[in-house]
């Protein structure tokens, strides 16, 4: 095998080693605060600007309940579950997620509540991501569920989402993101050293051929 072939093979090997999905986290998201009903459904832990104790307040420049790693496993009225949700009343909320760099996204997953209409809470009918609409299939039963949107081919540092309710309320506990690890993780130092070694090996072979 020629030195050029070795270098190409090494490069492809390194690329394939990193070509797997990795979880990525936004640096901030912008939205409007949730509302109140039987309980409060505000984005209590949000750390950006805006009032977390005022329904409908514009929130920007921070992160909070929607990206804290806590996914509700029970309905909004279940003991210990209420504070895990942000709930919007008579609103189709827009949430813009901002990332530190452009990623090759593969998926985004929304974790919704669906109490089958109890208290006016049902699953959303549609999710819009960066201008594309995705219809949500009917969730069987009345338990919280997740909905994943395939984002293959989407490279960006901003994802703008909108949730379209089918009832009075829409409840969301978490949003998670997956991206191609090649774009998310820099080339490891060991990989760079391997390429340097291959280049050096090719140069040595060239000098030997000339001699």
Low-confidence stretches: 2-18, 190-211
Write down the overall mean pLDDT.
Answer: 85
- The tally of beta strands, per DSSP, is 9
The largest sheet, given as strand count, sense and whether it forms a barrel, is: 9 strands, antiparallel
What is the string of helix and strand elements? Answer: HEEEEEEEEEHH
- Helix tally equals 3
Structural class: alpha+beta
The proportion of strand residues reads 35-45%
Radius of gyration: 23 Å
Query: Which bin fits the share of residues in helices?
Result: 10-25%
Distance between the termini: 19 Å
Gross geometry: globular
Q: What do you see in this structure?
A:
- The protein has helices at residues 3-18, 181-184, 189-210, and strands spanning 21-24, 28-32, 58-62, 86-89, 94-112, 126-129, 132-135, 145-164, 169-180.
- It is α+β, with helices and mostly antiparallel strands and 211 residues long.
- Strands 1, 2, 3, 4, 5, 6, 7, 8 and 9 form a nine-stranded antiparallel β-sheet that branches.
- The protein is globular, with a radius of gyration of 23 Å.
- The relative contact order is 0.22.
Keywords:
single chain, 211 residues, alpha+beta, nine-stranded antiparallel β-sheet, 20% helix, 36% strand, globular, disordered N terminus
Brief sketch in words of this structure:
With 211 residues, this protein is α+β, with helices and mostly antiparallel strands. Helices cover 20% and strands 36% of the residues. Strands 1, 2, 3, 4, 5, 6, 7, 8 and 9 form a nine-stranded antiparallel sheet that branches.
């Amino acid at each position: 095998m020629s030195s050029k072939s070795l270098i190409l093979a090494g490069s492809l090997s390194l690329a394939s080693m990193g070509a797997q999905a990795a979880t990525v986290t936004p640096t901030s998201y912008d939205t409007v605060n949730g509302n109140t009903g039987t309980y409060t459904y505000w984005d209590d832990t949000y750390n950006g600007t805006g009032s977390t104790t005022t329904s409908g307040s514009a929130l920007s420049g921070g992160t909070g309940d929607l990206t804290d790693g806590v996914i509700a496993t029970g309905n909004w009225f279940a003991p210990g579950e209420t504070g895990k949700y942000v709930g919007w009343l008579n609103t189709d909320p827009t949430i813009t997620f901002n990332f530190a760099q452009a990623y090759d996204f593969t998926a985004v997953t929304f974790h919704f509540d669906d109490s089958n209409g109890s208290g006016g809470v049902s699953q959303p009918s549609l999710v819009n991501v960066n201008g594309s609409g995705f219809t949500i299939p009917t969730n069987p039963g009345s338990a919280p569920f997740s909905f994943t949107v395939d984002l293959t081919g989407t490279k960006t540092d901003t994802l703008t989402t909108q949730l379209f309710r089918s009832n009075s309320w829409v409840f969301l506990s978490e949003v998670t993101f997956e991206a191609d690890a090649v774009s998310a993780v820099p080339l490891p130092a060991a990989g760079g050293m391997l390429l340097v070694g291959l280049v050096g090996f090719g140069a040595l072979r060239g000098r030997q051929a000339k001699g």
